[in-house]
């Protein structure tokens, strides 16, 4: 049975407890100045729950982004993965959203329009592998998404349920009531 709760920010003690389920080692957490530096260097903002998770400890392993010591180019590629996946589907699979207006027949023009529209959507920040949390500053309770091009599903209804699902063996179960918070643009691929 899922222990999802619709409200409630991740707390430091809860983050430590959840990190004890991980199958990888966990380094000491990042301080506020270090988290601010990561945001400045890479041009995004962590959600409050993501900051709490990384302040409690930094998981180490190939699937986890190493915001302190990782290769900056690889980290940038992980940050670009969700948008690049949508653009791939525009190019290879004919994906086009009505909000973008009529699709141009010229592929280069279509990709330019899609890329421009995607600059306005919330940036997704990698947690582990291709699991992402929206980088909406000071936010809590957003779902964790598994993102592979426009094949996007919930992998947790918040960061807590994600960690319990992915690492604690807890089934995700059907969407709860109230439903998970919507993430502008990205939630449309789940609906």
Summarize the structure.
The chain is of the alpha+beta class and 191 residues long. It has helices spanning 12-19, 32-42, 48-56, 72-93, 107-118, 159-168; strands at 26-27, 58-59, 124-128, 131-134, 144-148, 151-156.
Descriptive notes:
The chain is of the alpha+beta class and 191 residues long. The protein has one domain. It is 38% helix and 13% strand. The chain is built from six helices and six strands. A four-stranded antiparallel sheet has the order 3-4-5-6. Strands 1-2 form a two-stranded antiparallel ribbon. Helix 1 crosses helix 3. The two termini are 23 Å apart. The N terminus is likely disordered.
- Looking across the biggest beta sheet, what order are the strands in? 3-4-5-6
Strand content: 5-15%
For the sheet with most strands, the description reads: 4 strands, antiparallel
Q: Give the integer mean of the pLDDT values.
A: 93
What number of structural domains do the residues give? 1
* Content-based structural category: alpha+beta
Number of helices: 6
- C-alpha termini separation: 23 Å
Alpha-carbon Rg, integer = 17 Å
Overall number of strands:
6
Topology pattern, helix = H, strand = E: HEHHEHHEEEEH
